[in-house]
Structure prediction request, 193 residues.
Amino acid sequence: AGGHFYSSDGLTMYYNFSHFLATGSFAVTIDDGNRGVLSAARYPAVGTRLWYGLGHQLLGFPLYLLAFGFENEAWRWLVISLQGAFTMTAAAWCFHRILLLLGEPAPRATLLTACLALATPLLCYAKHDFAEVSLVLVALLSLFCFLTFEQNRRRRWLFLAAFWAAYGVWVKYSFLVSFGIFLGFYLVKARRQ
Prediction:
């Protein structure tokens, strides 16, 4: 978390959210000043709805609210840049819980979780404002909920597994392919039961 944005995606999401807080709408027009111009340049239709990265932004909603409590924009950026670190921590916790559900001993699960957090590209992405860490978290949450359903047979866990798999599409549209795989897997498992 360097206290600044690393990509135009992160900057665009920041401006979209600031516009949402100011107006209550994700619709940005060319007349919204330079913050709208950045988004309008990327989405040329005037008045377009800016859903890009909405799932990623919603996961960071508490941080965005906290950040906009600061008057200084540099402090806002610093707080928002922590989203990757918090998301990676949640993903690592979820991965650890999955390993325990699969019967791994706690020391091995902890070692594998440390490898995931420190020896994969997850750490690099967590330092930036990319949505990939949020995708990892959403996929792991979906798998965790499904494995919990497998153990206790409560349908709410199956619903939560499907919810998190579908939510991944809101984080990044390319997750649609993974959502199809997750959904197919869950349907096959549900039919066998």
